Fold this sequence. Notes:
Helices cover about 20% and strands about 20% of the residues. The strands form five sheets. Strands 9-4-6-5-12 form a five-stranded antiparallel β-sheet, with helices on one face. It is of the alpha+beta class. The protein folds into three domains: about 40-100, no CATH class; about 105-195, Alpha-Beta Plaits (2-Layer Sandwich); about 200-260, 2-Layer Sandwich (Alpha-Beta Plaits), CATH 3.30.70. The chain contains seven helices and 15 strands. Mean pLDDT is about 60; it is low at about 1-5, about 35-100 and about 270-279. It comes from Sphaerosporella brunnea.
Amino acid sequence: MEVEKxxxxxxxxxxxxxxxxxxxxxxxxxxxxxxxxxxEQSLSPGGSAEVPTNQKSRWxxxxxxxxxxYRAGNKEKCERMVVGPFRMSGFPRKLATPKDExxxxxxxxxxxxxxxxxxxxxxxxxxxxTGPVDTIRIIEEENMAFVVFVWYKDSLAFSAxxxxxxxxxxxxxxxxxxxxxxxxxGLRFREPVDISQRAMSxxxxxxxxxxxxxxxxxRRDMTNLIGAKLDFEMIEVQASSxxxxxxxxxxxxxxxxxxxxxxxxxxxxxxxxxxxxxx
Length: 279
């Protein structure tokens, strides 16, 4: 007596490797693939993806070293992404941030007043522990300073600290200035790149680099200087100039100290000047 054998579904045969993708693909039976960032295709009906590339790793207004990418035609559900030229795979690195967080640097800036005279950057930075800092600028003639944080939530935390903790430096009570100054020494600042001149910043500018310097070789040399793997937001090389953006001021200062004493880079540091990559 012959027993009729039940045929296996084609999907099961594909999972076991007994049938090729071409057979099922033509019938529309393959599981739907998740779209990748490098696919220039619509992620949803009527929406399109903006693919981050190395060529887009430039400074945008309020986006220091960041590339914006929007999901599927819904700009309310945006995610901030950063991609550096040294990330050879081209995949963006997501940064956890609230979707409604203001990105313009003026929202991340806190002005401090009542500072003691002749205060140094290292002395002031010890009191700023709420999060990574983009730029610190001391205005000595006014006994003031402004701090630009990387994240808006950290600027809110520092503002709350100044209001509730009765912070004192050398006996001087420091408070948050109620006036959001738009001019420093008569010059209006627009971006962290502009205000980082003569300030402590997480941006380091290099000029006069040796011929053939690439983002990968520069990152390798700087990592070897510290002796540990560092996290950079962006490394950009243009001709003989470079812009290095660390994830915090602390990393940038530590790196700067070693660059100044390095025989290969000691004559290239252009830390307090205008960005040489700004074309």
